[in-house]
Amino acid sequence: MPELPEVETIVRKLRPDLVGKTITNAKLLWPRTLASPSPKLFKRQIRGQKIEKVSRRAKYLDIKLSDFHLFIHLRMSGDLYIKENKAPLEKHDRLILEFGSIHTTEKKDGSKLVFNDTRKFGRVWLVRDANDVIGGLGPEPLSKTYTAEKLYADLQSRHRQLKPLLLDQSFLAGMGNIYTDEALHIARLHPLTSSDSVNRKHAKLLFDAIQEVLQEGIRRNGASIDWVYRGGEFQNYFRVYGRDGKPCPNCGTVIIRLVVGQRATHICPNCQVKGS
DNA sequence: CACGTCACCTGCGTGC
DNA sequence: TGCACGCAGGTGACGT
């Protein structure tokens, strides 16, 4: 489920409940959820850590602790909840962080952060140096320092199909399958077009489209589809994603589904003409 | 370097 | 009803 707007939505929701909390205990229910360090070290290091800041980098939640960064990536099916400490374990809960005061043994009135992840693809890191996890990421698309001219130059520097390139997190960090299809449609670019054949004018259109879909996604609290419901509503405003067989909102042509780089891809064959 | 394939997982919808 | 199959918002390790 989670691309940049969904993660941003989760961060905004969790932040007020997390900042200032002290982690008193960690329960790891599916060991592979933890990317690093070892479960033993993780439990020892995280105990007593206070949450100072909750933010996002691309699709990663970045929870700044007293001495570490706790990074969480939800991958395909991860989700995060704040619950009462006494709330029962649910199916697919993978990691629990309990809060309370480290100075007393009283824990029962505390709350907890629950990482639930059906497909077990999600990962958690506890590191001192943030770059160990997010160091390889490309630019943050909504950052003030990311510009159309930068995108144009980056596109020119590569010779790759547009869609796989936009999904490459080292090229641009935060786009996923939905928002990429939506942005390419708005910019009227075909997903197989070679990046270095995109001219400056079209790069600007693509840049604006990326800004637009990400901001709209955030404004609508992300997209909720399938059996994972998050309360977002962007799914009701998709232009092409998952709309194969339905009319293009621009021209009425039937939207088609193709596969690009192993990913379902949706385009209007009239608006998005394959270039070189 | 670009691209294809598979692996990692569970659950849901569809069609026989 | 059962069952096989295809599909899913992501990424990383390979091989060519």
Task: Walk me through what this model shows.
With 276 residues, the protein is of the alpha+beta class. The protein has two domains: 4-134, Alpha-Beta Barrel (N-terminal domain of MutM-like DNA repair proteins); 148-267, Helicase, Ruva Protein, domain 3 (Orthogonal Bundle), CATH 1.10.8. It has helices spanning 4-18, 39-46, 131-134, 148-156, 162-167, 177-186, 200-219; strands at residues 23-28, 34-36, 51-57, 60-65, 69-73, 78-84, 93-99, 111-117, 123-127, 256-260, 263-267. The protein has a five-stranded mixed β-sheet. Strand 10 and strand 11 form a beta hairpin. The model has no long low-confidence stretch (mean pLDDT 95). The structure holds a DNA duplex (16 and 16 nucleotides).
Which structural traits does this protein have?
N-terminal domain of MutM-like DNA repair proteins; 11 strands; 2 domains; four-stranded antiparallel sheet; DNA-binding; Helicase, Ruva Protein, domain 3; alpha+beta; 26% helix; five-stranded mixed sheet; 276 residues; single chain
Concise synopsis of the structure shown:
By secondary structure, this protein is of the alpha+beta class. Helices cover 26% and strands 23% of the residues. Strand 10 (256-260) and strand 11 (263-267) form a beta hairpin.
